[in-house]
Design a protein that fits this description.
This protein has helices spanning 2-7, 12-36, 43-63, 72-82. The chain is rod-shaped and about 70 Å long. The chain contains 4 helices and no strands. With 87 residues, the protein is mainly alpha-helical. The mean pLDDT is 84. It starts with a helix and ends in a 5-residue tail after the last helix. Helices cover 72% and strands 0% of the residues.
C-alpha cells in the first residue's frame, strides 16, 4: 500500500491508476492460468482422478493383453461394461 503511494510520489490519483492496472494484469494472468490448465485440481477432483486410475488399472490387469492392437473407443466401451457405474 505505501509502496504504491511512494512510487506515485504522493499523488493518490496515480496510486489508484497503478492499482487498477495491476488488478487488470493480475486478472489476465489468472484467466490465462485457468485456460491453459495450470489451475490446481480440487480435493474432490483429485480423489475422483485417483479412483478412476485405480479402477482402470484393475480393468487393464484383468481384461487387456499386452501387444494387442485396438481403438481407444473399444477400450472405453469395455471399461464401461467392466465397471457398471461408468455406463
Amino acid at each position: 500500500q505505501f509502496f504504491l503511494l511512494q512510487l506515485a510520489e504522493g499523488d493518490s490519483g496515480v496510486c489508484g491508476q497503478l492499482a487498477g492496472v495491476s488488478l487488470i494484469g493480475g486478472g489476465f494472468f489468472e484467466i490465462g492460468r485457468i485456460a491453459s490448465g495450470e489451475k490446481r485440481m480440487t480435493r474432490d477432483e483429485l480423489d475422483r482422478a485417483l479412483q478412476l486410475k485405480e479402477e482402470f488399472e484393475e480393468f487393464a490387469e484383468k481384461r487387456l493383453e499386452p501387444g494387442g492392437n485396438c481403438h481407444r473407443s473399444d477400450v472405453v466401451k469395455a471399461f464401461r461394461r467392466f465397471h457398471a457405474k461408468y455406463r
